[in-house]
């Protein structure tokens, strides 16, 4: 048969047993002054109180234990109360090594730039099982500090605290500093060296601008060298070449590179063309370079209708070219080789040579020897100082010929070479002068040749005759 003990009797029994146990502890010489209570409590904290003979100055792995109020901690120690009662522990702070960052301190940094930062931390002492407790990444923007990231120590005596920060846009125009704070189990803490990074507010700069031509209607290369103190991003080119401003496509460019744009200039001379480069760097700083040019006439005069009015040896011959220019003609230089093998330039001529169309007419007495080679050309200039000397690259030329005997000169005797086979179609009045027709060939007139003194005809031999005839009512009327 089983007997059940009521619950209240069980509780009374347990308390009675506890009282007997406590009484036994007080009487036990191995557990003096309730110190054993500290012993078991410290075990839970991973600490062991060693000396069991005195409850007032026990050593707890480097710290001096006080059963009552903490007191008497020496230099370099502080009071803590992890075990019942208090004891002194070292105030030595954690230390760090292998501090690293990817950006040199006190340098300009672009907004959004990642900054790697870290250090290897260790506690200064391991007594009482001291470990790293927490770590914080701190940053400051223009003097105001912020706590960013919390690291757990994980019960380790040494470990890495690493962090990657992004340079904030809120620091633009000022400075940014970062550091890491490590704390041990006993609230001893230390900070890394503070690294300062100054935000990049420096604009890109421009040098070596050029435009390789101002000629209206010609392709022009606008170019400029762009540099930046941190990193260049790219540029946009803009021009009003067509009359209104046009932005061209964004072009990426590394720092120190040359920005350029090739376009065909406005075809109207005298037009003001503006060119603008907008440069941007990796911190989104924009800079502007403006320039302008005025288009100029680059079209030289052109010629056509080259002609001479005779090639007869020993006579004065007029040499003519028709010239045209898009703006205005200024003058010309005539160059002549009278079968000497050498060109001789005349003086500059501007009289009667102006406007957009004109003639260069120059009369020269040519070499009197039949068959001589005559060469000539013209250098022409316009009001924009554009020259055309292309005719002198391949000069015009002709050979001198014998004088024509079929035409009466209106004075003196008329000596006709029958070999010229003349055909006279207009009346001729000899004014009392004589006519001589000699040689081999034919002479025919369909008009009247009158008022002559004497007419002589002769061949060169009996078989080489000069045949003189008249037709259609024409004839010789002495």
Description of the molecule:
There is one protein chain. With 478 residues, the protein is mainly beta. It folds into 5 domains: 25-90, no CATH class; 95-199, Sandwich (Immunoglobulin-like), CATH 2.60.40; 205-294, Immunoglobulin-like, CATH 2.60.40; 302-399, Sandwich (Immunoglobulin-like), CATH 2.60.40; 414-477, no CATH class. Helices cover 7% and strands 46% of the residues. The strands form 10 sheets. Strands 6, 8, 9, 11, 12 and 13 form a 6-stranded mixed sheet that branches. Strand 16 and strand 17 form a beta hairpin. The radius of gyration is 59 Å and the shape is rod-shaped. It starts with 6 loop residues before the first helix and ends with a strand. 23% of the residues are buried. Residues 1-69 have low confidence and may be disordered.
Key terms:
Immunoglobulin-like; 478 residues; six-stranded mixed sheet; 7% helix; mainly beta; 5 domains; disordered N terminus
């Amino acid at each position: 048969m089983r007997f059940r003990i009521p619950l209240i009797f069980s509780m009374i029994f347990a308390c009675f047993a506890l009282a007997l146990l406590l009484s036994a502890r007080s009487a036990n010489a191995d557990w003096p002054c309730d110190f054993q209570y500290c012993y078991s409590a410290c075990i839970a904290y991973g600490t062991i109180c060693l000396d069991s003979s005195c409850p007032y100055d026990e050593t707890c792995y480097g710290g001096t234990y006080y059963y009552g109020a903490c007191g008497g901690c020496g230099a370099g120690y502080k009071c803590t109360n992890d075990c019942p009662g208090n004891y002194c522990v070292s105030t030595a702070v954690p230390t760090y090594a292998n501090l690293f960052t990817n950006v040199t301190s006190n340098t300009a940094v672009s907004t959004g730039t990642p900054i790697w930062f870290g250090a290897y931390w260790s506690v200064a002492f391991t007594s009482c099982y001291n470990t790293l407790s927490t770590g914080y990444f701190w940053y400051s923007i223009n003097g105001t500090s912020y706590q960013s990231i919390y690291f757990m120590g994980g019960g380790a005596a040494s470990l890495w605290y690493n962090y990657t920060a992004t340079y904030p846009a809120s620091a633009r125009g000022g400075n940014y500093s970062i550091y890491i704070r490590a704390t041990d189990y006993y609230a001893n803490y230390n900070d890394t060296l503070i690294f300062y990074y100054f935000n990049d507010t420096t604009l890109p700069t421009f040098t070596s601008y050029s435009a390789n031509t101002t000629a209206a209607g010609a392709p022009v290369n606008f170019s400029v060298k762009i540099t930046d103190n941190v990193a260049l991003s790219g540029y946009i080119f803009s021009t009003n070449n067509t009359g209104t401003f046009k932005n061209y496509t964004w072009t990426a460019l590394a720092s120190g590179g040359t920005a350029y744009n090739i376009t065909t200039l406005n075809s109207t001379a005298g037009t003001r063309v503006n060119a603008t480069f907008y440069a941007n760097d990796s911190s989104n700083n924009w800079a502007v370079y403006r320039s302008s040019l005025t288009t100029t006439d680059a079209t030289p005069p052109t010629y056509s209708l080259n002609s001479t009015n005779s090639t007869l040896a020993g006579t004065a011959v007029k040499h003519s070219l028709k010239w045209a220019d898009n703006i205005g003609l200024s003058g010309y230089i005539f160059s002549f080789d009278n079968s000497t093998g050498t060109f001789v330039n005349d003086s500059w001529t501007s009289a009667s040579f102006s406007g957009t169309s004109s003639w260069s007419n120059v009369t020269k007495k040519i070499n009197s020897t039949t068959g001589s080679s005559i060469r000539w050309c013209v250098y022409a200039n316009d009001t924009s100082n554009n020259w055309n000397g292309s005719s002198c690259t391949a000069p015009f030329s002709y050979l001198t010929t014998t004088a024509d005997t079929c035409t009466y000169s209106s004075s003196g005797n008329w000596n006709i070479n029958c070999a010229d086979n003349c055909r006279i179609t207009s009346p001729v009045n000899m004014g009392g002068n004589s006519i001589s027709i000699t040689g081999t060939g034919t002479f025919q007139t369909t008009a009247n040749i009158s008022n002559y003194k004497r007419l002589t005809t002769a061949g060169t031999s009996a078989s080489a005759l000069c045949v003189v005839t008249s037709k259609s009512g024409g004839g010789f009327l002495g």
